[in-house]
Structure to design on (473 residues):
């Protein structure tokens, strides 16, 4: 294919961005037998390995030990204690893992693909649809944009005078603040709040819409109560007015229910979402369409309105998960190079928030289903009815299943549980297979597992769980 498609530069495909989506696209194309120019700007590896998934999950695990020790009081005759003795050492260990994985999963991967030519520099589009990098013009029959995203900076009066943190700089702090205000109740804010609270910082979350506003309301409400019990202050329903800084204290001036409210902390962390990295690409010169937040608009084959240009990952502004970025990039590469006609399908996309308890979801929420005109029935099972939770002396959590009223087919599953992330794929497979809640309720599940809660929740559509014996069919 290289011989018939390559241009004067020898490239069949240009991939802009060297994160998970960019690497997925480049490797897929190289496996198809074409020559690729992979353009990276900044640290190779993108968000996930450098400043997102890997560092945050490493820190979550580190501070989890302090909570586990405190929670030992749930068991009679058990006493345990754990404390942070060297926060800087934890941060350095986290960074060592990041450096190791960046090398193993990105830098060391490149030599295995001689047809991928890695270049560094900021890429910009020309009017004729080519790309310039450090003054050199590159062209290819097909281009894939995979430049990722960056933290969103809200427009709030006074913010420019604040030495604020974002999700990247917060996880680089080697000295903990006494108090921390986190603006935003999405998955980033929720995870970071628990990290710092369990490290001993007084944490306040300020948010317009509450914790995880896109989640099922039962899960958002329960998680808020668990955070409150853990000492995290959650202030929602706020209208932000302005920010000020005096004597090392940041103050958010806000309104809640018509009443003025001042919230103070030593440090401010912005966790108000992420925006696509499209500003510096000169997309308008090539006529590439973007949406209101700067995300590149694509069809379900990952193709933009400019026929030879595709886009994948966070830069599209949707499904900002590393596995979805890699998935979309593989589709883009196959369609760009092989005209495969593959289509992006996120209808059964598992999503996890790694707070404690974990939040895991797949399929439609009850409100999303109803918005589509689907008549639904739901089952909500509190974890006090799950034997695994009772044995662990930890009944925080619930499972909510959503099904079509006619036909009983499962269309959504939502889990709040300490081990919920490891159970959601079972629900995903059930939904993918078109199973009904009767089908799931009749399946054999191992006893004393978190995932058994899915079976119990399925049975609870039509049965009273209190009337079931252990392992009842």
């Amino acid at each position: 294919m290289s011989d018939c498609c390559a241009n004067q530069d020898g490239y069949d495909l240009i991939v802009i961005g060297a994160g998970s989506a960019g690497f997925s696209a480049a490797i897929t194309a190289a496996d198809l037998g074409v020559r690729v120019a992979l353009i990276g700007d900044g640290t190779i590896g993108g968000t996930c390995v450098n400043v997102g998934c890997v560092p945050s999950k490493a820190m979550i695990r580190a501070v989890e030990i302090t909570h586990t020790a405190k929670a030992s009081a749930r068991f009679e005759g058990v006493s345990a204690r754990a404390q942070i003795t060297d926060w800087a050492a934890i941060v350095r260990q986290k960074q060592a893992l990041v450096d190791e994985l960046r090398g193993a999963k990105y830098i060391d991967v490149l030599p295995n693909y001689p047809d991928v030519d890695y270049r560094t520099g900021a890429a910009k589009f020309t009017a004729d649809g080519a790309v310039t990098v450090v003054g050199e013009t590159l062209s290819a029959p097909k281009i894939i944009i995979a430049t990722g995203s960056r933290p969103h900076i809200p427009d709030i009066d006074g913010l420019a005078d604040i030495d604020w943190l974002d999700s990247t700089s917060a996880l680089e702090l080697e000295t903990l603040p006494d108090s921390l205000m986190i603006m935003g109740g999405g998955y980033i804010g929720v995870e970071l709040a628990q990290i710092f609270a369990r490290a001993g910082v007084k944490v306040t979350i300020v948010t317009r819409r509450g914790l995880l506003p896109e989640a099922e309301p039962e899960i958002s409400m329960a998680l808020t109560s668990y955070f409150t019990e853990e000492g995290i202050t959650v202030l929602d329903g706020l209208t932000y007015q302005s920010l000020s800084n005096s004597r090392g204290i940041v103050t958010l001036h806000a309104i809640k229910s018509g009443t003025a409210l001042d919230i103070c902390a030593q440090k401010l962390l912005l966790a108000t979402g992420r925006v696509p990295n499209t500003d510096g690409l000169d997309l308008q010169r090539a006529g590439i369409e973007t949406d209101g937040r700067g995300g590149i608009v694509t069809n379900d084959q990952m193709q933009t309105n400019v026929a030879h240009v595709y886009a994948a990952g966070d830069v599209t502004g949707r499904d900002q998960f590393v596995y979805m970025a890699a998935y979309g990039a593989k589709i883009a590469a196959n369609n760009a190079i092989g005209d495969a006609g593959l289509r992006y399908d996120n209808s059964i996309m598992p999503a996890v928030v790694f707070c404690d308890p974990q939040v895991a979801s797949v399929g439609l929420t009850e409100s999303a289903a109803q918005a589509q005109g689907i008549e639904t029935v739901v089952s909500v099972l509190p974890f006090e009815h799950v034997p695994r939770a009772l044995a662990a002396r930890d009944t925080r959590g619930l499972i909510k299943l959503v099904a079509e009223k006619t036909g009983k087919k499962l269309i959504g599953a939502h889990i709040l549980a300490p081990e919920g992330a490891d159970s959601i794929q079972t629900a995903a497979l059930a939904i993918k297979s078109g199973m009904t809640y009767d089908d799931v309720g009749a399946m054999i599940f191992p006893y004393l597992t978190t995932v058994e809660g899915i079976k119990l929740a399925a049975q609870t559509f039509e049965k009273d769980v209190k009337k079931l014996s252990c392992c009842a069919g």
Residues 1-7 have pLDDT under 50 and may be disordered. The first strand starts at residue 13 and ends at 16. The radius of gyration is 24 Å.
